[in-house]
User: Which sequence fits this backbone?
């Protein structure tokens, strides 16, 4: 599933190229998770002003409206001047004067949704519950410590919930907890302030490094230029069950938390 670094890498790979483009046509394929929410012809003639990101959503600011794009569990976007005819898994084409933005999503859990702006109830339903951005200045240590101290759930589950800090998905939660030396099963309100400070730093560091590495390509993720990510090659614990810890040599373990795999070092990460 594309997580925050993959979405940010995707944004960076086409944002400059599509900015200022005029929409010439919109082609829809099979229905996605949510409907577009407007007549496709309403988008024709509009300009793409910029591309932003909020959590795992790409936000395309238009001259009269906003498109929210979510990659779902298996989606990716491509942007280019010469596109082959849409394939069976291509479900949305935004044809512009600078190229075509295409959403490919084999499982169709992704979506493209139109809203008038971020204050629109449609946008608020998708974005309003999201926590702070971990790579921005609003990710304040004291606020993070306070919010985590108010949660009784396992610390990894709190990170994944996305209402304290947004976009820390399964891969990067496991990696950040390893760097902070915290066992994923530890109750969030039992983690001391100094350890939460280490986790706060680790979340930032892991996500920033993942963006630099182009994200993680575990199956078929690629950015809008078709480039794969390489962060998974240097993961400390994720996907390394049974392998030796890169720090202490202990065997990396895997458990299930909330129907997701969690990886940790039993020696480096303390309850």
Assistant:
């Amino acid at each position: 599933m594309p997580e925050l670094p993959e979405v940010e890498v995707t944004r960076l790979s086409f944002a400059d190229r599509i900015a200022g483009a005029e929409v010439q046509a919109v082609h829809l394929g099979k229905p996605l998770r949510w409907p577009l929410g407007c007549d496709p012809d309403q988008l024709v003639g509009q300009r793409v002003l910029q591309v932003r990101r909020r959590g795992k959503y790409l936000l395309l600011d238009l001259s009269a409206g906003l498109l929210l794009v979510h990659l779902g569990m298996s989606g990716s976007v491509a942007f280019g001047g010469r596109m082959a005819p849409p394939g069976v898994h291509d479900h949305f084409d935004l044809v512009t004067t600078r190229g075509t933005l295409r959403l490919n999503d084999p499982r169709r859990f992704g979506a493209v949704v139109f809203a008038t702006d971020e204050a629109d109830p449609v946008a608020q339903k998708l974005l309003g519950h999201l926590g702070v951005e971990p790579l921005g200045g609003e990710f304040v240590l004291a606020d993070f410590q306070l919010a985590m101290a108010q949660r009784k759930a396992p610390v990894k589950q709190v990170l994944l919930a996305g209402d304290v800090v947004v976009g820390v998905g399964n891969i990067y939660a496991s990696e950040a907890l390893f760097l902070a030396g915290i066992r994923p099963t530890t109750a969030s309100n039992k983690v001391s302030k100094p350890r939460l400070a280490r986790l706060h730093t680790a979340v930032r560091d892991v996500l920033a490094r993942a963006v630099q590495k182009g994200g993680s390509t575990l199956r078929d993720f690629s950015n809008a230029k078709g480039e794969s990510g390489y962060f998974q090659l240097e993961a400390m614990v994720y996907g390394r069950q049974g392998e030796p810890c890169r720090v202490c040599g202990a065997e990396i373990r895997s458990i299930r938390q909330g129907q997701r795999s969690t990886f940790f070092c039993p020696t480096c990460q303390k309850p």
In short: The first strand starts at residue 23 and ends at 28. The CA atoms of residues 20 and 131 lie 30 Å apart.
